[in-house]
Design a protein that fits this description.
It contains three helices and five strands, in the order αβααββββ. With 107 residues, the protein is α+β, with helices and mostly antiparallel strands. It has one domain. A five-stranded mixed β-sheet has the order 1-5-4-3-2. A hairpin with a 7-residue loop joins β2 and β3. The longest helix has 11 residues. It starts with a helix and ends in a 16-residue tail after the last strand.
């Protein structure tokens, strides 16, 4: 498992979370409910890991909402910090850009 995701999951469990303005806007645009992301954190799957991202380590994660529709979320930590978990963005993945299981990009 990704160390970045492990840290973020522990912070979510501890209710140490910050939602970026960008994530808040995207979630509103795409009818994504924060409770769906938080309640599915234990079953979420790492899609891509960015441990050396310049603003801090982050990870793209596949969640499913209560209706089993896929959601991609980027969770991260601000560079040099140990928390809170930052929800950077969340969106409904475009099936034309992602594999059928939404875990890899189409070529």
């Amino acid at each position: 498992m990704s160390e970045t995701f492990r840290q973020n999951r522990e912070l979510v469990r501890a209710d140490s979370i910050r939602v970026s303005r960008h994530a808040f806007r995207r979630m509103g645009q795409q009818n994504i409910v924060s409770d769906d992301l938080l309640s599915s954190i234990e079953s979420a799957l790492v899609v891509e890991d960015y441990p050396d991202y310049f603003v801090g380590p982050s990870v793209l994660v596949l969640h499913f909402d209560r209706e089993q529709r896929p959601i991609h979320a980027v969770w991260g930590l601000e560079k040099g910090t140990q928390g809170p978990a930052v929800l950077v963005t969340a969106y409904r993945p475009d099936p034309s850009l992602w594999s059928d299981d939404f875990r890899s990009r189409r070529s």
